[in-house]
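Exercise (ungraded).
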Amino acid sequence: MERTLNKDAVACIGKTITVKGWVNSRRDHGGLIFIDIRDHTGILQLTIQPESGETFKLAEGLRDEFVIAATGEVKERADDLKNKNIETGGIELFVKELIILNKSETPPIQVNSQQTINEESRLKYRYLDLRRPKMQQMLRHRAEMYRRMHAYMDERDFIEVTTPILANSSPEGARDFLIPSRMHPGKFYALPQAPQQFKQLLMVGGVPRYYQIAPVFRDEDPRADRLYGEFYQLDIEMSFVEDGEEVRTLMEPLIENLVTDFAHKKLLFEKTPRIPFEEAMDTYGSDKPDLRYGMKLVDLSASLKDCGFGVFTNAIKEGGVVKAIRVENGDSLSRSQIDNFTEKAKREGAGGMPYMTVENGVATSSIAKFFKEDELKDITAKMEAKDGDLIVFGSDKRAVVNKVLGALRIQFANHFELRDPNVIALCWIVDFPFYEWDEKNKKIDFGHNPFSMPKGGLDALNVEDKLSIYADQYDMVMNGYEICSGGVRNHNPDVLYEVFNILGFDKAYVEEKFGGMLNAFKFGAPPHAGCAFGVDRMLMELVGEDNIREVVAFPKNGSGMDLMMNSPTSIEDAQLKELGVKKI
RNA sequence: GGGCUUGUGGUGUAGAGGCCUAACAUGCCUCCCUGUCACGGAGGAGAUCGCCGGUUCGAAUCCGGUCAAGCCCGCCA
């Protein structure tokens, strides 16, 4: 007699085996009882006959989700009794001995049901939810992805180093989770928003290739593609790298392989394209474009600068642009659907949503009367529009138009179901501007990460137009989701001082704020670069989920609560006192 | 912080001023059943329709507020 998993029972015909698992369902025929026993490998039918005496009596009392062990002989079923729908449908276990290892109350959510269950209930009873085959598969998918990541990095001589979870509050970026220090009342640790500083210090510490699948913590509002509180990154960093392209070419085969070999999906591009940030913004209205569909933004300013439509000409006169996207077969949209899209456009900052449809080879609409015939022809030609297409315009400052049309592009793609779930489009967004114009405060500010290396180093910082400086920084985008962010780091103290000096911060400020890292850089920091992949988000897209909580065992809900464990919780006064924390 | 959507037996849904003493499916309980596989059959229990207030002769249904959830904006690498 040996212990066997359900799926392995198929190979045990004629043998006596023991299986253990949960009661998935019970079919009691009065004189004959069938039990489907479930483990993580699937379902196996147990057959209990009245001749088994005590065992039969025990089986009559079984209910869903009881935990049982059954011992008996595996027999092949007669041909007409085989169930082709399940893997073990050709056999059954004739039970001689049955042990109830634990009972179960009637479960609040049905494990064996196909019904979609309210997420709130699923999270409250996550341990039941996790018993469902789909969730079991998810957990195993995740483990398999981790395994591949470890193997890939190990093969390339990266070593895994764990970095502190009790770390420091960081000045940039998201809101911190703070941990009061008992030994230093009034002082706090912070949970790391990324292992960024530690991994750079590892480079200084002579570790040339580091990686870690690291938990990171951010106290920001969640979204469907953004977990609350904590998530995981495949975090890597390598020394003696001065060009981000080296990191990109090293890492992209891993991701491409995960797409084809792990997720069994098609890569849209044989060679993952590099798209400069500004081109992405201009062409797709987004720094994380979904490239599975077209609908590129086309600049029509040159054609329309003298047209009769004041909305357009005024925008151009004030230094703005007129751009448009072509929605294939978009004239099938109803008036109210158009109104819905118009609402969306307005929410993104547009004044309205002018549009034309194409009939008999030329654009037309209620606003067509403002345009000369050759202007309409020009629009049609530049948009490469065919009969039945919808042309949607945006006119304003360039940034506003890009934002509006970029958002509409996504909305139209959703509506017309242009996102092929079996295809993965990867791209790298490169050349992020180092500085950006802050419209609110009317001054220049850091575009993204002040610690990445300006392209061209110290010399490049001397240019007149600081907005023309680029950072050697890059994001990887998968089907419209940012799944990786990285950069060549600024390892040179002089460059770091100058980068801040341009914004008016002096040496003393930099030293006070970033002294720890700056000190290290004074003692022979090698040039280095790296990146971090969002593991959860990548897995979500690879397995075709549209909510990131579906690929996490125990996610928090939208208001940051764990409904199962009831966290966060209140704390005893005595405990607060010990930590030197005053109650509000 | 703001916007949109949703809230009805344990679970998933229907009902959209009087057909509601709230329907259906599933689950649960009792009984019957020796080849089912989401077994089947008979019977039964289970819901103050998220909460508070208002309109009305009459509210699950309309209105106001409130709470909760999901999505989005803000925020966030």
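Further reading is listed at the end of the chapter. For now, observe: The two ends of chain A are 63 Å apart (CA to CA). The mean pLDDT of chain A is 93.
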